[in-house]
Amino acid sequence: MKKALKYTCVIILLLTGASCKKYLDITPDNLGTLDYAFRNRNEAENYLYSCYAYLQRMADVSSNPGFTTSSELIYSNTLDNYQGFNRTGFNLLRGNQTAANPGLNAWDGQEGSYSLFRSIRICNIMLENIDKPIDLSETEKKRWIAETKFLKAYYHYVLFKMYGPIPLIKTNLSISSTTDEVRIKRATVDESVAYIVSLLDEAAPDLPPVITSQATELGRVTSVIALSVKAEVLTTAASPLFNGNPDYAGFKDKDGVALFPAAFDAQKWRRAADAAKVAITAAEAQGIKLYTFIAPATVGKLSDSLKVTLDVQNAVTERWELNNEVIWATNPEFAHQGFATPRLTPKSAVNAFSNPSTFSAPIATQELFYTANGVPINEDKTWDYTGRNTIKTGDFASRYYIKEGYETIKGHFGREARFYADIAFDGGIWFGNGRYNQDDNSNPLYHVSARGNGLAAPSDNIRLNITGYWPKKLVSYASVYDDGFQQSQFRLPIIRLAGLYLLYAEALNEVNGPTAEVFSYLDLVRKRAGLKGVQESWAAFSRTPAKFNTKDGLRQIIHQERRIELCFEAQSGWDLRRWKELQSVLTAPIQGWSINNADAVNYYRPVTQFIPVFGIKDYLWPIKSYDLIVNPNLVQNPLW
């Protein structure tokens, strides 16, 4: 009965319009009724925007497990919610999650997250009342219904990624619902995926393929977005975590129904590949293509190497309306450039309090990136992997990447363009921050000075980078951190074409193994990054030159390619989960450099920041123990 009362109270609040007032002030005092909220087109449109409310929060990467639990970045444990930033998600890797108090609890909307079931209820209310506005045209109504169905599908999908089999809230419960009716059970994995996909299929035909009124509608859903999300949903369902996972073979509900499929189904990969190809075709038909940087008048002559790094970096940090690669991005803008920017000027060091510079990439993240030959650093037979941490001084040949005459390590030399585009390091060149001429000796490009009295070195025990690596990819080259922070705003991509290409290559390899088509999509992404194709690179430089000839070997290449290309974009955390690879990634300690030392020989000594805690149970979030008490039809996820 407590559960019934809880649901009844929620329904009453929704029916009185109280849920909307946190997003939009659309009803006068004492008139909080659905009839008022849907009395005309304008009021109904306000309610539609409330359905989008959770998406507004996606720009806050601190609440996105794909960002905080990927191990690509860590966050200082001495920095307690600095400037409102919530570190709960980052601390999950330290093993502080329990069933009694789950972190980033999207089920209930607690501990740094937001209740997605609440968002789903708002979407249901929208669908139930869409016929009420008398001045709403049939064309707009069809589009709004499609948008709402998409959002409803997406919210179910995020829950599915976190919790696996979930209750499907197809319609809102009536205020007269019985106790048994409000005790909703979890659907199976296959039922959950089928329902999410059905909503996307219903939505896509009635959505516009592209947003034409960008000034007023950028951020609203398109058919290309819906098709791309469908491809991602089906790829997730086909992946090892959800497709015949032996760890969950005995996981059943209270009625003995198996919640996970017992056997691997190869056809799931075929459906994923087909969906990805449809999405790619639809995207390309709308002029979506891989981004290349077009230098504005403020930028001087660019070397080929710097041009490629800006192709890569700006594929993320270019404004959405100018970026022809982005399919879907967060709205509003990315709010954490100051967390990803080292201090580069004397004034920025004085104003250290204004931006903490605390997003820290572990050593393992920088070692993920290839050599300039396009193969992993531990496979390249021409690259000194064993001596990668020995000291080397910046030379003329590397001057556009590393400060000439500056002591750093050999591991920072001879790397691919994405390494220099994505990661800032001690001695590394920073193109931008107000300096855009690579050959202006009187006003040279900035470099990161992270040792001793260097501007980017620790200023105290709070505003510091604890590894010596910054996620440069998350900062626009046009942003300036000097006397305060002048940000060139951008929206963090949720889906961009390069990711879709790699998704298709992954699914196609799982269906057919290595084929010319798989390599063609992989190589499109690599070419933009200035690399040769997979076959040419491995044959010429890898210690395992035939690796790409088998499905297993090419799978490893595709996974690493995806982790590199989408690094710091809130994707790898989800990928590593669905691949069941996050546990193996987190077996090693999380390390950085000895940041409080001034001399290079002492600075470049690995220091363990913490030992990650991650086991089989951590692939899925626990349902809060209290929820299992009030709804005895729910079952807890395995091992929690």
Automatic annotation (TrEMBL):
GO cellular component labels: cell outer membrane
Keywords carried by this UniProt record: Cell outer membrane, Membrane, Signal
Family stated for the protein in its record: Belongs to the SusD family.
Record has tRNA-binding as a keyword: no
Keyword Ubl conjugation: no
Annotated ranges, domain SusD-like N-terminal: 115-228
Signal peptide: none
Protein name: Starch-binding associating with outer membrane
Family annotation (Pfam families): SusD-like_3, SusD_RagB
Annotated compartments: Cell outer membrane
Domain RagB/SusD: 354-640
InterPro entries: SusD-like_N, SusD_RagB_dom, TPR-like_helical_dom_sf
